[in-house]
Protein 1
Amino acid sequence: MNKLAFIFPGQGAQYVGMGKDLYDNFKEARHIFDEADKALNEKISKICFEGPEEKLQETVNTQPAILTHSTACFSILKANGIIPDIVAGLSIGEYSALVAAESIKFEQAVPLVQKRGRFMQEAVPLGEGGMAAILGLTKEEVLEICSIASKEGVVEAANFNCPGQIVIAGEAKAVSAAIELAKEKGAKKAIPLAVSAPFHCSLMKPAAEKLSVELEKVDITNPKIPVVANVNAEIVPSSNAIKEFLIRQVYSPVFWEDCVRKMMDFGADVFVEVGPGKALSGFVKKISKDVTVLNAGDSESLQKTINYFGG
């Protein structure tokens, strides 16, 4: 034990104003936000700091915004000598993890995830797909519900977040049918999510094909820190595997609970959620009561985490 894990959030963690206090208070954060603006040739920093919310919620902006904010937080921790032993990120957070592990350069990752966001948005016309969170049912029950509801169209398990929380994705009609079935089955909650596309299901295969072309243009090297992959909850073996996993990740379920357990098996007993929001912290606490969970998402939480490590 006594290993440190960094975990990086996915889409849904964004909020207007994210990163502004970091930019004002830490030179490392300023450098990252300025680098993102330069790499994108547009002010993603302005969208993070000022919104408007509907612009930040556009997937094409959300994904580079979360990557930039998470990397800014990571750069501050690193400057204070806090380096993880193992990393993972949920969905878009996997790119933040790969940047932290020095597998992908930040200036290449930012435009890449912007394109990823665009491809994912274009794969299914707005309103035709959806996602829902199912709370209080087992993995087997959710898979059975998806199987029955699939007569209405595509619907699949998309995120296995933690015990009792699974997200489904697919065609809108089929997702609605699965929600009703989940309620009949006794789910504590079955609620549609405010997302612009059905991520991590087979409807995203066209996006994955376009992403594979873009990934060929990016330099990916072997990680300097072990990275646990979303698609199989295993430590990625090589830079070649990373490209394959990132392509598959677009249309495959995210095995987040298994990723956390893999990090615990590795010896991690302190988890730091690096970036906006606290959703992953909540998942980790539900997965294990035996680990310490910290946050590093704004000036206050960063300072608390730095203090925890004696900084």
Protein 2
Amino acid sequence: MTAPQRLTDRKRQAIIQAAINEFRDNGFEITSMDKIAATAGVSKRTVYNHFPSKEELFAEILNQLWIRVTAEQETAYRPDLPLRDQLRVLLTAKLQMLGDDNFLDLARVAIAATIHSPERAQDMVARMGEREEGLTVWIRAAQADGRLKAVAPEFAAQQIHGLLKSFAFWPQISMGQPSLSAEEQNTVADSALDMFLGYYQL
């Protein structure tokens, strides 16, 4: 990669980080491209070269959020390993991602902006629905192997996500509670595993 390309990439990341900070601190409606440029230490023209509008810049932030959500450790189903051991790897990766401060900042921005614009929320949900995540794929494979009860894999995956997020996402987003410690993450993961496998494992 040439030096100019690296500089361009650095400026793009600086713009995105500045936008996250501004959206988080001031909300979507109040944040201006001028302020984002000033915070990023670049010209307004540079911001517009990378992102033609505030909406497109926000869409890129949502895209990065979704990449982080779906970049959780992909674990292919293994018929030769205990279900609990395999599922624990997936849940641990999810809890680590949910505890990441940058991820929580992005989530706050996205939630605040979508509350004020149902159209934006619909677009976000549609974008997320385009890509099936690892846990759903894993559940489907375990069902096909006759080791989990037959239920819609998406439904079962959403259930286990709910068990995690009630401790490791919503209290932090809505009440400003600190991220879970490693010990607390283990407790939440073990409890979710007990409940999920206690009901679904054959």
